[in-house]
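retry 2 of 3: previous attempt timed out while embedding zinc ion. Reduced batch size to 1 and resubmitted. Inputs unchanged:
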Amino acid sequence: MYSRTDWENMIREAIPLFRTLGLENGDRLINTLYGGGLYGGLSTTLCELSRMPLECYSTAQAISVDDLLMLCERFEANVLLGLPVLIMPLLREAKQRRPGLRLEKVIYGGTPMTETDKDWLRQELGARVVTSILAANDGAQLGYQCARMGGTLHHACPDYNLIEVVDENLAPVPEGEPGELLITSLQKFEGPLIRYRIGDLGRVFHHDCPCGVSGPVLEYLGRADGQVKVKGATVTHAEMLAALEVFRVSQLQVEIVSVDGRETVIARVESPLALDAGEVRDHLTRQFKTLDQEHLFNDALDVFELTVECLPEGGLTRNATSGKIKPVIDRRLVDA
Ligand SMILES: [Zn+2]
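retry 2 succeeded.
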């Protein structure tokens, strides 16, 4: 719930962030953020971008490769705003159909983008700016990248959202330690958010950024539900995804199922390359002892299996409202 003042505050505070993310006067932007189902992406950015001196064509999630190619040519779009899960498959197909395709700036949010995907944007599309904005559907902006930041590091917005990093008992952890993120909105009063658990992991520490801004930065460490717990050990979704960069994997979904006491971990990967499932599987078991079938409590028991399914880009099911892919589905707990 937002009062008019709350809404004004959110919009006003986001505009300087878009400047830092790389938007400039006269840019021509395609906005593919999701709309509908009370989802914040499209409705908030429509208001924010309409107050900036640039041209914006909003397609939301309905964008097709044809739309993208048409807008790059006839609308002379130079910026694309969207979720990596939606835009990467579209851009790769568009590049295949029009090898000369160029896009100066890509601003993404929602989920992390792999370093190999960022390199692809720079090399294949000539992207000069690839930056990330972190936001929560109910709490709006949490962090944003400047041109000097990479990975998942973001400048925080401490006068808009106060971020606490806490342990499992909701007690704050020491500065720089990883934990779950709680946010308290400092400019939202009608439906205030106080120590609101957004379901993300991260760490916050002081950083003197080469861009000139000194202050708290947030390193995003993925969804709090992105943990693969098998055989008494934990492997995180983010670690597995990082290990799969050699295969140019863009998206990973891990499902854990248990049938008759036998646990199976299914790793579904999306990549622009045609991958061999056996090779990906061997690589994962070499990288993570926990996922190795040979490494069991008791050699006589056949209680664990890792399988890999290779899908083309766009092959994993996206949530109809948010467009996101569920990172870890643990069917041992609930039938998710
Ligand atoms: Zn900076």
